Amino acid sequence: MTDTDLTAFVRGLPKAELHMHIEGSLEPELMFELAERNGLALPFKSVEEIRAAYAFSNLQDFLDIYYQGAGVLITEADFKDLALAYFRRLAADGGTHAEIFFDPQTHTDRGIAFDVVIKGLLAGMDEAEKTLGVTSKLILCFLRHLDEDAAFATLEQAKPWLAEIVGVGLDSSEVGHPPAKFARAFQAARDLGLKIVAHAGEEGPPAYVWEAIDLVKVDRIDHGNRALEDEALTARLVRDGTTLTVCPLSNLKLCGVKTLEEHPLKRMLDLGLKATVNSDDPAYFGGYLLENYMATATAVGLTREDLVTLAKNSFAGSFLSEAEKAERIAGVDAYAAAN
Ligand code: HPA
Ligand SMILES: [Zn+2]
């Protein structure tokens, strides 16, 4: 297969995205448009100047600019436009399902009501399903640099919306904020019937991944790269069949790997880990879902079979019902057999 043929094959392959922060899909063009619509001044003069500022050496560098960018999101319409713009890109990449993160505290802490945020996102998700055929679910993330009380307050605000939220996650600055800090908030979320995920092992040590699985009892791990430093942990993740939502271009941009060639994705698959490919914050990290698949495929030598496995893992690790998962996985097999 030529590179062009392989890209066409992967574009057509049905795929789910399981690790994408909706605020991280805010493209500079939309940032300017929303700033203007809301009468806000940006500390940048042009789209080019914004893109030039996206040179990060670590997670915190990125987070500082990401929280600043989210400041242009004010109205329900802003959140709907943000979500729809993402789903259009996903559909163009052949994505058929997404489980998207949102950070309510980033907005409520600057006076935007929780209900404004969630109503706008749900409107975008609804329209995406109707007009693009892309299904989606919503995952509320606690900001881990804030305290446990703030997580509980956010969970309280989510209570009227539980039918619309599939799970809770944990994001923001990892080191110094282990999953254990939120063990009780996650237990309360689980008691409400929510699924649990957590970023772990992006910059934080294998011990944080152990905590996420043993203490918080997550349903999947977001990133998980540093789990590979611990053989017993890797074996445990393989044995449990834990899904890892891996984000190759994010890892490159935040300097978790020096080059994409040294990215562990191929190694993860060869070890039997249930890895998936995701874009994390595509507007900031330089690529949506397909670009993450293809850049990594080229850099680490993923085979056609690896790519099919990744697509199947994305549905198997999703929060769709067992029947829906089986149907979507059969769709991947049918596509692979026909192409
Ligand atoms: O890549 C990320 N890591 C942790 N927190 C985040 N919040 C948005 N994106 C990220
Ligand atoms: Zn993330």
Automatic annotation (TrEMBL):
<dbReference type="InterPro" id="IPR006330">
    <property type="entry name" value="Ado/ade_deaminase"/>
</dbReference>
<dbReference type="GO" id="GO:0043103">
    <property type="term" value="P:hypoxanthine salvage"/>
</dbReference>
<dbReference type="GO" id="GO:0008270">
    <property type="term" value="F:zinc ion binding"/>
</dbReference>
<protein>
    <recommendedName>
        <fullName>Adenine deaminase</fullName>
        <ecNumber>3.5.4.2</ecNumber>
    </recommendedName>
</protein>
<dbReference type="InterPro" id="IPR032466">
    <property type="entry name" value="Metal_Hydrolase"/>
</dbReference>
<feature type="binding site">
    <location>
        <position position="199"/>
    </location>
    <ligand>
        <name>Zn(2+)</name>
    </ligand>
</feature>
<feature type="binding site">
    <location>
        <position position="281"/>
    </location>
    <ligand>
        <name>substrate</name>
    </ligand>
</feature>
<dbReference type="InterPro" id="IPR028892">
    <property type="entry name" value="ADE"/>
</dbReference>
<dbReference type="InterPro" id="IPR001365">
    <property type="entry name" value="A_deaminase_dom"/>
</dbReference>
<keyword id="KW-0862">Zinc</keyword>
<dbReference type="GO" id="GO:0009117">
    <property type="term" value="P:nucleotide metabolic process"/>
</dbReference>
<dbReference type="GO" id="GO:0005829">
    <property type="term" value="C:cytosol"/>
</dbReference>
<feature type="binding site">
    <location>
        <position position="21"/>
    </location>
    <ligand>
        <name>Zn(2+)</name>
    </ligand>
</feature>
<keyword id="KW-0546">Nucleotide metabolism</keyword>
<feature type="binding site">
    <location>
        <position position="280"/>
    </location>
    <ligand>
        <name>Zn(2+)</name>
    </ligand>
</feature>
<keyword id="KW-0378">Hydrolase</keyword>
<keyword id="KW-0479">Metal-binding</keyword>
<dbReference type="GO" id="GO:0000034">
    <property type="term" value="F:adenine deaminase activity"/>
</dbReference>
<feature type="active site" description="Proton donor">
    <location>
        <position position="202"/>
    </location>
</feature>
<comment type="function">
    <text>Catalyzes the hydrolytic deamination of adenine to hypoxanthine. Plays an important role in the purine salvage pathway and in nitrogen catabolism.</text>
</comment>
<dbReference type="GO" id="GO:0006146">
    <property type="term" value="P:adenine catabolic process"/>
</dbReference>
<comment type="similarity">
    <text>Belongs to the metallo-dependent hydrolases superfamily. Adenosine and AMP deaminases family. Adenine deaminase type 2 subfamily.</text>
</comment>
<dbReference type="Pfam" id="PF00962">
    <property type="entry name" value="A_deaminase"/>
</dbReference>
<feature type="binding site">
    <location>
        <position position="19"/>
    </location>
    <ligand>
        <name>Zn(2+)</name>
    </ligand>
</feature>
<feature type="domain" description="Adenosine deaminase">
    <location>
        <begin position="14"/>
        <end position="334"/>
    </location>
</feature>
<feature type="site" description="Important for catalytic activity">
    <location>
        <position position="223"/>
    </location>
</feature>
